[in-house]
Write a structure and sequence with these properties.
Layout: E1 4-5, E2 8-11, H1 15-26, E3 31-35, H2 51-58, H3 62-68, E4 72-73, E5 75-79, E6 99-102, E7 116-117, H4 121-135, E8 138-141, E9 144-152, E10 155-161, E11 167-172, E12 174-177, H5 184-189, E13 192-194, E14 200-208, E15 221-226, E16 231-237, E17 242-250, H6 258-270, H7 273-281, E18 283-284, E19 289-291, E20 296-298, E21 302-303, E22 306-308, E23 314-315, H8 323-344, H9 353-375, H10 377-385, H11 387-397, H12 408-422, H13 437-445
Parallel strand pairs: 1-11, 2-3, 2-12, 3-8, 5-15, 12-22
Antiparallel strand pairs: 4-7, 5-6, 9-10, 10-11, 13-20, 14-17, 14-18, 14-19, 15-16, 16-17, 20-23, 21-22
Helix pairs in contact: 1-4, 1-8, 8-9, 9-10, 9-12
The structure holds flavin-adenine dinucleotide.
Length: about 450
């Protein structure tokens, strides 16, 4: 006996799960979201990209974003520690310099505002989950999904534990895993592959009274490059007075204890004097949080009666703030297939084929873009500064990655990187990062 039968059960009430609940409820699908935490809860991933706006528009969520007063994000900036290097030969224009972009430089279909948002994820996730409930999704917080059974082609049963240790059983036709980096179904089905290259970790916190006005565009996200291999820091406005900072580095560089990690954080800050000066005057208002070892993919994103979305499907390094947008857009694409599958009464994996192909292509594009950034980051700066490539780069940074399986930009970057790799005398050879393209290939063949 089940406590309740619905069309769709969603595990997780983060951006992926709650936008999925909103889309389905809007289409009249009976769905239920189980979220194991009580919201608001803190969460990493605070800077959005504009492709999120399409989802907010479709779900009529923009008025709530505006009312909440989240800082508007008009663009992004990357700062370097070494701006006096100039290269000659074929790359005579290339210099390692600070770069920035504004989102309004490129028009986006169905995105009608020149900015996106930075968010306090506690508040943002709570508002989005409440929105799903308002649209008709049933929402349970402090509801931990701990068991799933695929009974037959039309029935999945799910067991949920509530705070008083009470356990209940629910049934659905289609299960959506939106459990984030917990990767509930990925672990259960053993379909998760750890990324052999992106072995990154992060250490982050919030400060008040950091003077953002000492930076050219105080409302941008700043990514500060640090002269330690594959290491950078984010600076994200959270509200008028609060700014989020985090350091991302390779696991090999990441110290073992929290005390050493805090020292590493401040060592990184000290390598950027202008940041050091401002941050030393600010006050830390949150404990430091560690995000460990996080890049992975799943061998399958859909199975009979099952769809994986958001971080539960795949996680790529956060350098370009892609995660929430992927979560929202994966719900957008997957919900269309789910609605059709329910209409047809066919809940097998083939019904979710469009979603599977679209999200794979989009996230692979992000992954390839990011891997090339890590392999040769001066090339990213060069491309941003070249009028010929600038709009293509901005398209990526806006999160418009789903409409092309082989973007020209990526091919161009790949071509240059392989020239640099194969020619030790190339002026950029010395700037190659230590993540090799061969190791990337090993990972890609599996996907
Ligand atoms: C260091 C770092 C920096 C990042 N920076 C950015 C950034 O600037 N911008 C950006 O867009 N993204 C960023 N991200 C990525 C971003 O955090 C994620 O991509 C985003 O939160 C994914 O949303 P989601 O809904 O898939 O997962 P989540 O937001 O993690 O939500 C999953 C939810 O599922 C719940 N859950 C898990 N298991 C169960 C269960 N068994 N039963 C019930 N509920 C369950 C969890 O409690 C959680 O609330 C960053 C990530 C990292 C690691």
């Amino acid at each position: 006996m089940c406590d309740m039968e619905v069309d769709v059960i969603i595990i997780g009430g983060g951006p992926a799960g709650s936008s999925m609940g909103s889309y389905l409820a809007k289409s009249g699908v009976k769905c239920i979201i189980f979220e194991k935490e009580k919201f608001p809860r803190p969460h990493v991933g605070e800077s959005l990209v504009p492709s999120s706006t399409r989802v907010f528009n479709e779900l009529n969520f923009i008025p709530k974003m505006e009312k909440a007063g989240f800082p508007k994000k008009f663009g992004a900036a990357w700062t370097t520690y070494n701006s006096d290097q100039i290269y000659h030969h074929d790359f005579k224009d290339l210099e390692e310099s600070d770069v920035d972009i504004r989102f309004n430089e490129r028009e986006q279909q169905d995105v009608d505002q020149p900015y996106t948002y930075h968010v306090d994820r506690g508040l943002f996730d709570k508002l989005l989950l409440e929105h799903a409930e308002e649209l008709g999704a049933e929402v349970h917080q402090e509801a931990d999904v701990f068991h799933v059974e695929f009974v037959n082609k039309d029935r999945v049963e799910v067991k949920v534990r509530f705070p008083d240790k009470e356990e209940k059983k629910y049934a659905c036709k289609i299960l959506v895993d939106a459990s984030g980096r917990n990767t509930f179904m990925g672990n259960k089905l053993k379909i998760k592959i750890k990324d052999p290259v992106f072995n990154q970790c992060a250490f982050h916190t919030w400060f008040t009274d950091f003077d953002r006005n000492s930076f050219k565009d105080p409302d941008f996200i700043y990514i500060h490059f640090i002269p330690v291999s594959n290491t950078w820091m984010w600076q994200i406005p959270i509200n008028e007075t609060t700014t989020s900072f985090g350091v991302v580095t390779q696991k090999d560089n990441f110290p073992n204890t929290n005390e050493q990690r805090e020292a590493f954080f401040w060592d990184c800050v000290a390598k950027r004097p202008e940041l050091d000066k401002q941050l030393k005057k600010a006050k830390r208002v949150r404990p430091y949080t560690v995000e460990g070892d996080y890049s992975y993919a799943m061998t399958e994103l859909v199975k009979d009666n099952l769809i994986l979305i958001g971080d539960a499907a795949r996680f790529v390094d956060p350098i370009f703030s892609s995660g929430v947008s992927v979560a929202l857009n994966s719900a957008r694409f997957a919900s269309r297939d789910i609605v059709e599958a329910l209409k047809k009464g066919d809940h097998t994996a083939t019904s979710f084929d469009t979603y599977n192909k679209t999200i794979r292509a989009g996230v692979n594009n992000w992954y390839n873009f990011i891997k090339m950034y890590y392999r040769l980051n001066v090339l990213f700066t060069y491309f941003v500064n070249q009028p010929k490539y600038r709009l293509d780069i901005i398209k990526f940074l806006q999160g418009d990655v789903y409409d092309d399986t082989a973007p020209k930009l990526l091919k161009e970057m790949e071509k240059i990187i392989s020239q640099v790799e194969s020619n030790p005398k190339h002026p950029l050879h010395a700037f190659l990062g230590n993540l090799t393209s061969n190791s990337f290939n090993v990972f890609e063949k599996k996907n």
